[in-house]
Amino acid sequence: MAREVMKTHDTVFASRPQMTAPGILFYEGHDVAFAPYGDYWRKVRKICVLELLSLKRVQQFQYARVEEAAEMVEKIQTACLSESPIDLSELLILTSNNIMCRSILGQKFDDEDGSWFGETAKELMVQVMSFSFGDMFPASRWIDSLRGYIAHLKAIFSRFDKFYDQLIDEHKTADREGKTIKKDFVDILLQIQNDCALDFEFTKEDLKALLQVCLYPTP
Prior knowledge:
- This protein is mostly helical.
- Helices cover 68% and strands 0% of the residues.
- GO terms for molecular function: heme binding; iron ion binding; monooxygenase activity; oxidoreductase activity, acting on paired donors, with incorporation or reduction of molecular oxygen.
């Protein structure tokens, strides 16, 4: 049995099942986490390993880690001096999110500022793990539509999709005007797309799918 799974049919078992929520929220499997195992997945994974998660890139984004850690320490110090209570768990999550957002998007979205981003990202995470009748009983997919599950997923996807469109346009404008100082994931992916250095068409949807899956673990 182990030989059948690990060697004979390894490519079959290496692929993820196509689920309802990831299919809608992650651009129909155009990301590296939920894409079916195959040629596209290998090529996108190569982009992530060589261009986004290499040692050079990790060192490149050190400034974000240092600055956010310093800001966290300052908040703790301020709370101690004023003898005010502080939620360390929430602060650590916020700091981690800010580091990720600055590295990936070039800016941070503090929940303290009332940004929609944090709550919507948390909702995305909840929905990816939520129960779907269609996933368990394919003949009952109509129930997901009837109970508003599909519409809710599409609403979340639409908010992120519009956000990414605006973000990409802002990065393109900044690049044309020479205002890009510290490159983030968006800049790197846009450069890869513009250079046409890949042996497949790297579309805007592929780019947004990678951004989505990079941000997925952060809430």
